[in-house]
Amino acid sequence: MIMTPTQDQTCRVIQTGMLIEQNVEARYLRVGRAFTYGPIRRLFEEFAAEVRDHARILSRHLRDRDGGKQLVTQSGRRRRPRAAEGPAILNPPALYQAFDEAFRAAERAIVFHRRAIEQVDDRYLKKFLQVLSADHSFHLDILGHLLADIRDRPMHLTPGRKLAPVEVPWVAAMFEGVVPPWRREAEVEGETPGRWFINYV
């Protein structure tokens, strides 16, 4: 079946979106695996899992389009989460660099998804792209505060070559449903989010 120019463009947008989501996932995993503090590791793993789901849903959107099944097969699918490649994160400067790379990947995802909304021909896909942009913005809000909180804290390498100690109590509290201070202020100002953290989907 021959695709129309609009259909072909939508398929290219979806394929690119899948690659962008996979890149964000890999960079989140790389940063998270540098820590010994369990809640921070879990935070990055949860965010990476959400982004991995983004790519899977985009894959389904592609498969449902005319000629999309073949494109999904050509794109391939990773069966196991993989961290981004790079030198070992053995000191704070290397950690901050990895953070920056993760931030930039998520920011590129936001820009791409916002622009892609005007380039696709499916209203459900448009809505999903809006959701993706909002999810990445949420991740960046949390991770930005995390980076600010750990910067300049003393760290040392454990025998397992992980950075420690970096304990951030509010990260652990989030897994119990406790809203961080800056989010409480937003709620008071009338910007209460309709969902919160890990179980918000």
Kindly describe this structure.
- The chain has 201 residues and is mainly α.
- The chain has one domain (5-165): Ferritin.
- It is 64% helix and 2% strand.
- It is built from 7 helices and 2 strands, in the order αααααββαα.
- The chain has helices at 5-32, 38-63, 68-75, 92-116, 123-150, 169-174, 181-188; strands at 156-157, 163-164.
- The protein has a two-stranded antiparallel sheet with strand order 1-2.
- A hairpin with a 5-residue loop joins β1 (156-157) and β2 (163-164).
- α1 packs antiparallel against α4 (92-116), α2 (38-63) packs antiparallel against α3 (68-75) and α2 packs antiparallel against α5.
- The protein is globular.
- The model has no long low-confidence stretch (mean pLDDT 84).
Give the tags:
single chain; Ferritin; 7 helices
Short précis:
64% of the residues lie in helices and 2% in strands.
